[in-house]
Amino acid sequence: MNIASLLLNNPFILAPLAGYTDLSFRLLCREMGADLTVSEMISCHGLVYGQEKTLIMLKTVPEERPWAIQLFGNEPELMGQAAALVSKKPVDLIDINMGCPVRKVIKKGSGAA
Ligand SMILES: Cc1cc2nc3c(=O)[nH]c(=O)nc-3n(C[C@H](O)[C@H](O)[C@H](O)COP(=O)(O)O)c2cc1C
Hints:
- This is Dihydrouridine synthase (Dus).
- The protein is of the alpha/beta class.
- Helix content is 30%, strand content 19%.
- The protein has a single domain (12-106), classed as TIM Barrel (Alpha-Beta Barrel).
- Strand 1 (2-3) and strand 2 form a beta hairpin.
- Flavin mononucleotide binds next to strand 3.
């Protein structure tokens, strides 16, 4: 399976799950056959302003390739800055969360909003 130039060996992709898909969980899923893993959704605001809890979510290891980072936010300028920041990391794909229906996310204009 291909996603642009990214070639996956199998079609099993670990969906992004806020509160679950940390590095340990992602590595377990990779052991179980996932060929692409995705971070928890990561706040663009937290990334750009260097919030410690957010930066921890970028943690990965070389065995975890290919992997994707999912961003969420509500300000195009910050989204762009965050994407530029993460593109300097060892990451294969940047995904934008445009579907999260959770109240605290949509009330700030992010996710599904
Ligand atoms: C606890 C939980 C957290 C989730 N977090 C995210 C998230 O951060 N980003 C996202 O795009 N989807 C998130 N989702 C949606 C899942 O990635 C997935 O699309 C959804 O559960 C449907 O998957 P299914 O079709 O395999 O049932 C979350 C779902 C659950 C249950």
